[in-house]
Specification:
Blueprint lengths: L3 E5 L6 H10 L3 E6 L11 E4 L5 H8 L4 E4 L7 H12 L4 E4 L19
Parallel strand pairs: 1-2, 1-4, 2-3, 4-5
Helix pairs in contact: 2-3
Length: 115
């Protein structure tokens, strides 16, 4: 069964490699980026959004089954990740790539799971 996948940082180093693979696998993709790009990939629902904007996150994750968090920012990675997890909590699975400065667990106030 195909999933609706949200990819943050869809135009970045990791995201632009991942998006065409998800589309090729038959998944519906919503690509989120803070920078406008002429195209992300054909057939992709593209959203221009700053993940620091907590008020926009509910709309960004609406209707999504899985979030693949590839975005990073010069400052605030932990806050962005925390806000994204909060917006998605109870609705979708969230996967993050390992980034410097981002952690999970009790000390960071973020849940960790190997599921």
């Amino acid at each position: 069964m195909a999933s609706r996948v949200l990819v943050t940082g869809a135009t970045g180093t990791f995201g632009r490699q991942l998006v065409p693979r998800l589309v090729g696998a038959g998944d519906g993709v919503r690509a989120v980026s803070r920078r406008p790009q002429p195209t992300v990939h054909a057939g992709v629902d593209r959203i221009l959004a700053a993940l620091q904007n907590v008020g926009a996150l509910d709309a960004v994750v609406a209707g999504i089954d899985v979030v693949v968090h590839c975005a990073s920012a010069p400052r605030g990675d932990q806050t962005i990740t925390r806000n994204l997890i909060e917006a998605a909590r109870g609705q979708v699975r969230v996967m993050t790539r390992s980034m410097a400065g981002t952690s999970c667990g009790a000390s960071a106030g973020l849940p960790c799971s190997r599921e």
